[in-house]
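tokens incoming
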């Protein structure tokens, strides 16, 4: 995988940062905001949930999502997922743990769930805290006491801010809003292949784009089960044949009937991440919110694109909150906490380089065997349990969502949250 220089990656990752000093906690509050940097360090703006940076919702988000590099720069304010890895000790010891517990206790003691009524912000806030809960619940370590302290408090807040099912279903269809904004092309640009596109019919039930399922579990098993996702999102694999809807049906069927099926030039594969939320009855509900869209266009060589949800743009009503993503922290399939290892040459990985690492062949022939790069079919590098063969079929969004929900309900992270949910006060 090609490495991008550390300097460029740091500049890209710090978009939206300024030189403002960190907010101070109001007098009389029970918590400090975050670890104090020196006055010369660049600062990121942490006013996601309210214009006031010292608002308790912002301070909770900041304490859980902020990481500081060895260069003194802050990261996390514009990250979709918390910068927490399997080996992360941040939030589990020292000041970061004590202040996290304090700010969560403050939130609970003043019933801060009542300070913001906007369903969209409540949904996102639950999603953000749930991600940290699952990280804390995903493993047993020597710091189990500290993990438990976080889990108990996070579980209660997650429950307090839960929306009724009907309000979850009424959240905005941000993908359609992104398409309607006409901010991005709607199809592959032959003259500008580097420009990402959002097809308007991707999620339409009668279009040439068809979601694919598999027998035995979620189709995107690796994305579903792996850190940092743990089944909190429904990953939908869509296929689109250049021969239209009938061609797409034949394309999916050929995955199971032909020994070496080919993916025709002009076809597309999309991986859509849809947000699950927990309603006020403790039930998992598929929301309308799209978190990421990854598209691969099959031409003479595969072309990769990714769009990611920005909280700020979502709340401001800009293009459904979806923005092109060109690099990322390696949370999925990562090798450990980049903030703990100063020897790593890059803190972020470039797109499409990181995509090609898994979805590429050494020799890509567009008419012979390139379907191996569709991992839901080939399971290349990521075999199913017992090396089972993928039996694929055309499915629906709701059917795949139910498959993921059932997987999540059997997972240890959900059982841990369910237990604490039942113990919290009404």
């Amino acid at each position: 995988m090609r490495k991008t220089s550390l300097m460029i990656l740091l500049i890209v990752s710090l978009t939206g940062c300024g030189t403002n000093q960190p907010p101070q906690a109001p007098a009389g509050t029970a918590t400090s905001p975050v670890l104090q940097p020196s006055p010369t360090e660049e600062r990121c703006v942490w006013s996601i949930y309210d214009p006031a940076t010292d608002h308790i919702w912002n301070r909770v988000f900041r304490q859980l999502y902020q990481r500081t590099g060895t260069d003194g720069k802050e990261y996390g304010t514009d990250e979709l997922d918390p910068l927490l890895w399997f080996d992360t000790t941040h939030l589990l010891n020292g000041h970061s743990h004590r202040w996290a517990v304090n700010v969560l206790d403050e939130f609970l003691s003043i019933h801060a769930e009542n300070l913001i009524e906007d369903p969209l912000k409540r949904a996102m806030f639950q999603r953000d805290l749930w991600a940290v809960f699952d990280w804390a619940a995903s493993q047993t370590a020597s710091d189990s006491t500290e993990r438990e302290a976080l889990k108990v408090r996070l579980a209660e807040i997650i429950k307090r801010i839960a929306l009724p099912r009907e309000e979850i279903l009424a959240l905005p269809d941000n993908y359609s809003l992104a398409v309607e904004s006409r901010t991005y092309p709607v199809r592959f640009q032959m003259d500008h292949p580097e420009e990402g596109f959002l097809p308007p019919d991707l999620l339409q039930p009668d279009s040439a784009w068809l979601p694919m399922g598999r027998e035995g579990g979620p189709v995107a098993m690796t994305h579903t089960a792996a850190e940092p996702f743990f089944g909190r999102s429904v990953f939908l694999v869509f296929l689109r044949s250049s021969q239209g809807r009938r061609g797409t049906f034949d394309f999916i069927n050929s995955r199971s009937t032909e020994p070496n099926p080919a993916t025709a030039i002009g076809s597309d594969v999309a991986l859509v991440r849809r947000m699950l939320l927990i309603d006020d009855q403790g039930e998992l509900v598929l929301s309308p919110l799209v978190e990421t869209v990854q598209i691969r266009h099959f031409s003479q060589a595969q072309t990769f694109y990714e769009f990611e949800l920005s909280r700020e743009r979502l709340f401001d009503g800009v293009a459904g909150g979806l923005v092109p993503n060109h690099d990322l922290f390696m949370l999925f399939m990562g090798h450990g906490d980049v903030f703990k290892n100063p020897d790593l040459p890059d803190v972020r990985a470039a797109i499409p380089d990181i995509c090609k690492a898994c979805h590429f062949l050494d020799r890509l022939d567009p008419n012979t065997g390139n379907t191996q790069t569709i991992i839901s079919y080939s399971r290349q590098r990521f075999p199913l349990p017992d090396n089972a063969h993928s039996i694929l079929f055309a499915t629906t969004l709701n059917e795949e969502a139910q498959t993921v929900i059932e997987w999540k309900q059997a997972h240890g992270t959900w059982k841990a949250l369910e237990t604490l949910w039942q113990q919290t006060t009404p």
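note: The longest strand covers residues 284-298.
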